[in-house]
Amino acid sequence: MMSKTVIYAGEKYAVVDVGSRCVYCNEDTAFGSGRFVNRVGADHFDEETKEYRDGYSCADCMSMECDRCDKCIPLDEDITPYCVYGDDALDEFSDGAYRVCHDCLTAEETKILKENPENDF
Fold first, then answer.
1. Count of domains forming the chain
2. Which long-range contacts (CB under 8 A, 24 or more apart) does 62-69 make?
3. Is the pLDDT of residue 6 over 80?
4. Is residue 77 a contact partner of residue 101, using CB atoms and an 8 Å limit?
5. pLDDT per residue over 47-67, tens digit each?
6. For residue 28, what are the domain limits?
7. How far is CA 10 from CA 6, 13, 25, 54, 76, in A?
8. Sign of the torsion formed by the C-alpha atoms of 10, 50, 43 and 32
9. 74-106: per-residue pLDDT in tens?
10. Residue 99 belongs to some domain of the structure
């Protein structure tokens, strides 16, 4: 692995190119690993080691929790108020949730989402 030092906000940090390893979990994302197709270019600052890790993130580390059920939402499968209501959306759903999984949409939200021709659902 190649390493260099950069100065950010007046402090020195080691920049570590982790290659095809995930910058978060260190799992392999190289071709043939089963994680290559969904890997995403990423960087991550590790507070503990003071390393700035540069490379890729695996899809598992890029998943987010549903605001309604706390299950992990796979990469690019989250639904926000903007997905449902378009440009007329508020910053959150009526219950305060912002990012939800498909299973947690209310009947009304599902109906509106399906009626919107711009959606792929």
1. 2
2. 64/99, 65/99, 66/97, 66/99, 66/100, 66/101, 66/104, 67/96, 67/97, 67/98, 67/99, 67/100, 68/95, 68/97, 68/100, 68/101, 68/104, 69/101, 69/103, 69/104
3. no
4. yes
5. 888 888 889 999 999 999 999
6. 3-61
7. 10, 10, 28, 20, 36
8. positive
9. 988 999 999 888 877 788 999 999 999 999 999
10. yes
31 and 9 inside one domain: yes
Query: Given the structure tokens 């021709």, which residue do they identify?
Result: 117
Closest to 85 in 3D by CA, of 66, 61, 111:
111
Edge-to-edge, what's the strand order for the sheet holding 51-57? Answer: 3-8, 11-22, 51-57, 40-46
* Secondary structure of residue 22 in the 3-state scheme: strand
Mark whether 57 and 68 lie in a shared domain.
no
Residues 53 and 35 in one domain: yes
Q: 5-11 — which CB contacts under 8 Å span 24+ positions?
A: 6/52, 8/52
User: What would the two tokens of residue 104 be?
Assistant: 């947690």
Residue 114 reports pLDDT greater than 70? yes
Q: What is the pTM of this model?
A: 0.69
Instruction: Give residue for tokens 């989250």.
Output: 78
